[in-house]
Design goal:
Blueprint (H helix, E strand, L loop, with lengths): L1 H14 L10 E5 H4 L9 E2 L6 E8 L5 E6 L4 E11 L7 E10 L2 E3 L7 E2 L2 E5 L12 H5 L4 E11 L7 E11 L7 H22 L1
Parallel strand pairs: 1-3, 2-4
Antiparallel strand pairs: 3-11, 4-10, 5-9, 5-11, 6-7, 6-8, 6-10
Helix pairs in contact: 1-4
């Protein structure tokens, strides 16, 4: 019975484990590897959005960078988008803003704010443009894909470091008929306990 008690404790611990636990940000697009993310629609399609932090890495010039971000799963809600842009602020791209789209066109009745280069970890969901902006909350919540573009509001072409990274924090909802890791472990553990109990009875 002591063995059974230990096994029950292990089962309880395994059942509490999340189906997936990772704090590592996933790179879903890297322009230097995947090619141009230019403004010709539908632009660049990234790897599927995952639960947690996702990173897009690119370089901006005169043209816009337009992205289509599909979802790995059923749907997703984007909780924040944080943009970092390198440069010297006097040449190359000097100002940046981001526009959001759905299947019918641009989303949001407000003009998104410009950010002056360089800047780090600038949340796009702050100020006068974010989830509370009319039309925008539908864009950010429970969608199967997300469309947006990173726009040079003012640029003088080459001559500066125009690299950027965009972190997208998301909650992804997945539906599957396959039990999650915790459930599977619990079921396997119950089988082990049943086997041990049967052995005790027979022995």
């Amino acid at each position: 019975m002591k063995i059974n008690a230990k096994l029950l404790k292990i089962i309880l611990l395994l059942s509490l484990l999340p189906a997936s636990a990772s704090a590592v940000a996933i790179t879903i697009f890297d322009e230097s590897i995947d090619g141009d993310a230019g403004s010709i629609h539908p632009g660049a399609t990234t790897v599927g959005l995952t639960d947690g932090s996702n990173i897009i890495v690119g370089s901006l010039g005169y043209d816009y960078d337009y992205f289509r971000v599909p979802v790995d799963g059923s749907s997703a809600t984007i909780t924040d988008m944080m943009l970092t842009f390198e440069g010297n602020g006097s040449s190359g791209v000097r100002e940046v803003f981001v526009s959001f789209y759905d299947s019918e066109g641009k989303v949001g009745s407000s003009t998104p704010p410009n950010f002056f280069v360089p800047f780090s970890d600038q949340s796009l969901f702050s100020g006068s443009f974010g989830p509370s902006t009319p039309g925008f909350s539908e864009w950010a919540n429970n969608q199967t894909e997300f469309l947006f573009e990173i726009v040079p509001a003012y640029a003088t072409g080459a001559g500066a470091n125009n690299n950027y990274s965009l972190q997208i924090d998301a909650t992804v909802v997945q539906y599957s008929s396959v039990p999650d890791t915790g459930s599977t472990a619990a079921l396997l553990g119950l089988g082990v306990v049943a086997l041990a109990f049967a052995r005790c009875k027979l022995g």
